Amino acid sequence: MSNKKIGKFPFTKGIYKDMYRNRLWTMRQYAGFSSVSESNKRYLSLLESGVSGLSVAFDLPTQMGYDSNDDMSYGEIGKSGVPISTPEDIESLFNQIDLEKVSVSMTINSTASILLAFYISLAKKRGYSLEKLRGTLQNDILKEYIARGTYIFPINHSLRLTTDIFEYCQQNLPNWNSISVSGYHIREAGSTAVQELAFTFANAITYLEAAKTAGIDIEKLTTQISFFFNSHRNFFEEIAKFRAAREIWAHIVRDRFKIANIKSQLCRFHVQTAGSTLTAQQIENNTPRTTLQSLAAVLGGAQSIHTNGKDEALSLPSEKNALSALRIQQVIAYESGIPEFIDPVGDSSLIDSMTKDMAEQVNAKIDDMLAKGGVEKLIQNGTIQNEISESSIKFQNDLDDKKAIVIGVNKFISKDQIEEKNKPQLAEDRLAIIENFKSSRNEKNAANALALLKEKAKTNENLMPYIIECSDHQCTLGEISSSLKKIFGEYSL
C-alpha cells in the first residue's frame, strides 16, 4: 500500500484532499469556427448546455500574426478556428458573455500578447475589473518550435514576450493563468507519454529560469502556471501519466527552485482527449475512444477536461456532436458515482507501479536534456524534434505491421463516405470587415501607438502596456505583429 496521501506532497494521488466531492472538474469545450458570429453562437450554446468554461481555438493566420486580409492568409482563414484580426473581432466573439463570470482559455502562443491585449481592451471598455477576470493564456512558445511550427520571432525575443506577460499578469490579472505549458501538442506530433511529460516540464523549467532572470517573482508565478496534457490510447498508462505529472512537478518546484509554498507545488492541468486518435473512418468509433480518454482524465485527477466531438477527424465539430461530447463528461460526473470517491483507483499496484516507472523515466530524461544544454539548444540543433519524429514513425510502422490496432483503420475495416463540413468563411467577407474597421479608426493615433511599440521593443521595458495601447487605438493583430517583426526579426532553422 502506498503511503502517499491525497492533497499532500508530492500530490501523486491528487492536489485536493476532497477532489471532486466538493467541486467537479471544469467542463471546458474547445471551439472556434470560421466566423466570429458562428463562434459566439456556439459559445452561448455551450454555456446554456452546462459548460463552465470556454476554450477558444484560433485559425492559423491569427496564430501566425497575419490579418485575414493578408496575402499569407489565403486559403487558411477560419479553417482551424476563429479568425481574429481586430479588437472588434474579440468584442463580437464574446458578445452577451459576462467575462467576470466565465473562465476563458485561449490557445494562442506567438501572438498571445496581442490577443490578451485585445481581451483586456474589451474588459476595460465594458467596465470589468481586471482582478475579476479568470482564464488561461496558453503562451507556451517553446512547444511551437518543438511540435507545431506556429512561431514568428527568434526564441530569445519570444521568451521576452512570454515573461512580459508573466509580469503584467502578476501585477494586473491576479486570477489569470499567464501560461499553460502544453504537452498536448507534443503528444499530437507523435511523442510517447514519457516524452510528453519530459519535454513539457523541461519547457516549464526554462520559463521559470527566464522569469527568474527577468526579476519576476517565480514563487508567485508558479501559482499561476497550469499545464495542458493529452489523454491518449493506453487507458492505464494515461492515468499513471497524470499521477506522475503531479509528483514530478512538485519535486521540481520544491527541490530545484527551493519553493516551499504548497500552492506553487500543485500541478494543475487541463486535459483534452487525443485528436490524433480520432479516425475519419467509422467516426462512430470515436465516441468510445473519447469516453475512455475522458474517464482516464477523471481518474487521473484533471482540473478541467475537453472531450473531442466524434466528427473532429473531418472538420470542426457540429453543434450536435459537440453537445454529445460534453454529455460524455456529464454522464461520468453525474451518473457514474466516480466523483463520490476521493481516489477511485486507490492503491492499485498496477497504477502505482506504472506511475513510479513513468516518473523515473521522465526525470532521467529531463536531467539528460538539461545536461546537454537545455531546451533552447536542443530545439536549435533539432534534437527534440527528431526524437518526436522517430516516435511518430515507429507508431506508424507498428500500425502498418498491425502491431498496433486501430479499429476501422487496420482491423474491422469497412467502406464509409467522408464528407467535409463547416466550410470556412470566404476571404472576401473578412476583407470587408477589416476595411470597415480601419476606416472608422483614428489613423494618426493608431500609427503613433505602433511607432511607440517599435521604439519600446528596442529597450528592456515590458511591452504589454504598449501592446494594449495599440489595441486601445484600434491597431490590428497583423499591424502589431509586423511592427514587432521589424525589430525582432523572424525565426528560421
Account of the protein in words:
This protein has 493 residues and is an alpha/beta fold. The protein has one domain: Methylmalonyl-CoA mutase (TIM Barrel, Alpha-Beta Barrel). Helices cover 50% and strands 8% of the residues. The protein contains 20 helices and nine strands. It has helices spanning 36-48, 60-64, 87-93, 112-126, 142-148, 155-172, 184-188, 193-213, 218-222, 235-256, 262-265, 286-299, 319-334, 349-371, 375-380, 383-400, 427-439, 443-457, 464-472, 477-488; strands at 26-31, 53-57, 103-107, 135-137, 176-177, 179-182, 225-231, 269-273, 304-306. The protein has a nine-stranded parallel β-sheet. Strand 3, helix 4 (112-126) and strand 4 (135-137) form a beta-alpha-beta unit. The longest helix has 23 residues, at 349-371. The model has no long low-confidence stretch (mean pLDDT 94).
Which helices and strands, and how do they pair?
Elements (H helix, E strand, L loop, with lengths): L25 E6 L4 H13 L4 E5 L2 H5 L22 H7 L9 E5 L4 H15 L8 E3 L4 H7 L6 H18 L3 E2 L1 E4 L1 H5 L4 H21 L4 H5 L2 E7 L3 H22 L5 H4 L3 E5 L12 H14 L4 E3 L12 H16 L14 H23 L3 H6 L2 H18 L26 H13 L3 H15 L6 H9 L4 H12 L5
Parallel strand pairs: 1-2, 1-9, 2-3, 3-4, 4-5, 6-7, 7-8, 8-9
Poorly predicted ranges: none
The description of the largest β-sheet is: 9 strands, parallel
CATH topology: TIM Barrel
Going across the biggest sheet, name each strand in turn: 5-4-3-2-1-9-8-7-6
**Total domain units:** 1
Please identify which CATH superfamily we are dealing with.
Methylmalonyl-CoA mutase
Ends distance:
50 Å
Determine the strand fraction and express it as a percent band. Answer: 5-15%
Average per-residue pLDDT, rounded, comes to 94
Number of strands: 9
Q: Please give the count of helices.
A: 20
Order of helices and strands: EHEHHEHEHHEEHHHEHHEHEHHHHHHHH
Q: What is the C-level CATH assignment?
A: Alpha Beta
